[in-house]
């Protein structure tokens, strides 16, 4: 069972660059284009819980950063949650987007430079919740998950720069993910 441990250099938008660690992603578009990157492996549902965190090193000019997960078929030039088979929490408006509806739901606070956003997929009850700076946002963002899901991040903010933690270092969130 292979777990996601880095970004997939061959599964990203051309508007993104990735450093040699395969954990840091920089947006290189002009804010008109969206860049999305997927992890190197899907999340195995048999692990029951999967959690990862994204450090916002630089929010960029307009803070358009989306953190979530998607299926392999999803367009890498559309923000997480804007297409069927894609879900994401966005830092510029605090909304969660799920699939092709085009409409988000207010979920949590905005996030920006210096924040760490965590995403927890619970395959026992097929739900997702997010954390900010190690604290659970307290409610379910998505329900009824299905499909083969990859962690993903989308950026559309000039100067935007993030780093992912798939568990190679200590997480900021230390709470009980199974209680939600």
Overall number of domains: 1
Q: What is the strand content? A: 35-45%
- What is the CATH homology-level superfamily? SPRY domain
Low-pLDDT runs: none
CATH architecture: Sandwich
Order of helices and strands: EEEEEEEEEEEEEEE
Span of the ends, CA to CA: 25 Å
Largest sheet: 8 strands, antiparallel
- Helical residue percent band: under 10%
Whole-angstrom Rg: 14 Å
Treating each run of at least 4 consecutive H or I residues as one helix, how many helices? 0
CATH class: Mainly Beta
Backbone structural class: mainly beta
Determine the CATH topology.
Jelly Rolls
Anisotropy-based shape: globular
Let me know the number of strands: 15
Mean pLDDT: 94
Detailed description of the structure:
0% of the residues lie in helices and 41% in strands. With 180 residues, it is mostly beta strands. The chain has one domain (7-172): SPRY domain (Jelly Rolls, Sandwich), CATH 2.60.120. The strands form two sheets. Strands 2, 3, 5, 10, 11, 12, 13 and 15 form an eight-stranded antiparallel beta sheet that branches. It is globular. The protein starts with 6 loop residues before the first strand and ends in a 15-residue tail after the last strand. GO terms for molecular function: carbohydrate binding. This is Concanavalin A-like lectin/glucanase domain-containing protein. Keywords: Lectin.
Short description:
This protein has no helices and 15 strands. With 180 residues, the chain is mainly β. The protein has a single domain, classed as SPRY domain (Jelly Rolls, Sandwich).
């Amino acid at each position: 069972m292979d777990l996601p441990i880095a970004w997939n250099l061959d599964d990203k938008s051309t508007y993104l660059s990735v450093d040699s660690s395969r954990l840091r992603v920089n947006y290189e578009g002009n804010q008109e284009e969206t860049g999305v990157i997927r992890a190197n492996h899907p999340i195995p549902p048999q692990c029951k819980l999967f959690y990862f965190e994204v450090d916002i090193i630089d929010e960029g000019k307009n803070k358009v950063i989306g953190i979530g997960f998607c299926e392999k078929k999803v367009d890498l030039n559309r923000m997480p949650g804007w297409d069927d088979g894609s879900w994401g929490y966005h830092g510029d408006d605090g909304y969660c987007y799920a699939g092709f509806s085009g409409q988000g739901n207010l979920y949590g606070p905005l996030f920006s430079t210096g924040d760490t956003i965590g995403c927890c997929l619970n395959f026992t009850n097929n739900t997702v919740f997010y954390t900010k700076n190690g604290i659970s946002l307290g409610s379910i963002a998505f329900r009824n998950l299905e499909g083969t899901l990859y962690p993903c991040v989308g950026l559309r903010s000039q100067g935007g720069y993030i780093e992912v933690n798939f568990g190679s270092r200590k997480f900021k969130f230390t709470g009980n993910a199974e209680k939600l």
